């Protein structure tokens, strides 16, 4: 069993700090992305992940009305898995 820490941040500065903290104790994280519609909170823009330099591998949990819209904006070699609600993927 592997415990995967999750980062949920509404702004990019908080995300970057949490990411640097995680680099000190893990090699894999989950990043939560929210659109402010499917769930009331909204995270930083998905495109910001492309600018992040980290040795960590990660998965993304997309909580959005249109998860494929957010996913299309992410191109990062560290991305290994995407998680989303089934009903939202069926609507996209």
Spatial ordering of strands, largest sheet? 1-2-3-4
Structural class: alpha/beta
Strand content: 25-35%
- Low-pLDDT parts are none
Biggest sheet statistics: 4 strands, parallel
Please give the oligomerization state of what you see: single chain
Overall shape: it is globular
Rg (C-alpha, Å): 13 Å
Number of strands: 4
The H/E string reads EHEEHEH
End-to-end C-alpha gap: 32 Å
Number of separate helices: 3
Helix proportion range? 25-40%
Overall average pLDDT: 92
* Structural domains: how many: 1
Task: Characterize the structure shown.
The chain is α/β, with parallel strands linked by helices and 92 residues long. The protein has one domain. Helix content is 25%, strand content 25%. The chain has three helices and four strands. The protein has helices at residues 12-23, 67-71, 86-91; strands spanning 6-8, 28-34, 57-63, 79-84. It has a four-stranded parallel sheet with strand order 1-2-3-4. α1 links the parallel β1 (6-8) and β2. The chain starts with 5 loop residues before the first strand and ends with a helix.
């Amino acid at each position: 069993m592997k415990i995967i820490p999750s980062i949920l941040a509404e702004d990019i500065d908080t995300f970057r700090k949490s990411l640097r903290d995680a680099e000190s104790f893990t090699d894999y994280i989950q990043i939560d992305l929210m659109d402010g519609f499917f769930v009331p909170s909204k995270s930083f823009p998905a495109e910001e992940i492309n600018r992040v330099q980290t040795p960590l591998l990660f998965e993304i949990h997309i909580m959005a009305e249109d998860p494929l819209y957010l996913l299309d904006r992410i191109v990062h070699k560290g991305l290994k898995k995407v998680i989303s609600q089934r009903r939202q993927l069926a609507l996209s």
